[in-house]
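Researcher: Good morning. I'm working through a list of sequences from a screen, and I'd like to move beyond sequence-only analysis. For each chain I'm collecting a predicted structure so we can compare shapes side by side. This is the next one on the list. No need for commentary yet; just the structure.
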Amino acid sequence: MANEKNETVHSSFWSNIFSYSTEKTDLQISLQSIPLFKSLGKKDLALILNLLHNRSYLPGEYIFYQGDPGIGLYILRQGEVRILHEYENGNKVDLATFTKGDFFGELALVDGETRSASAIAETEVKAAVIFKPDLDEFIEKYPKKGIKILNGISHIIATRLRSLNEEFFSLQRGNK
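Model: Good morning. Structure tokens for this chain:
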């Protein structure tokens, strides 16, 4: 940990390592490009669209605070969001910056634990949010589709964990 009050750390866990096109503005196409929903068909995606809640945030506004309950996945439709972690000693670390087409908060769909970092709107932000209770209800109603979504979440977590492991092992090799 650095002595500076605010530093930027590039960690593969927070990086958007899932490449997909955000050129098209159609939310259904954007959803299909996210690993969470890739295996769903157009009819299934239409059902998911009904779960989305649109939210807008002003520059500097907190989307959620570190320590808040994790209640949903955010898909950026416009703007820029900074993810910030604050240590108990007051040091702050910028973990990632997300832009249009990026998503964050997927762990909240699995465990509902508290947020490990804060999300702050850097610019005017428009986001589509899927809240955990809505997704849980969807999974209960459509278990086969739910399994596909949960497999998508597993893929995201596994990919990020593998990348983080590689980063860690690379650092370990560098310290020897």
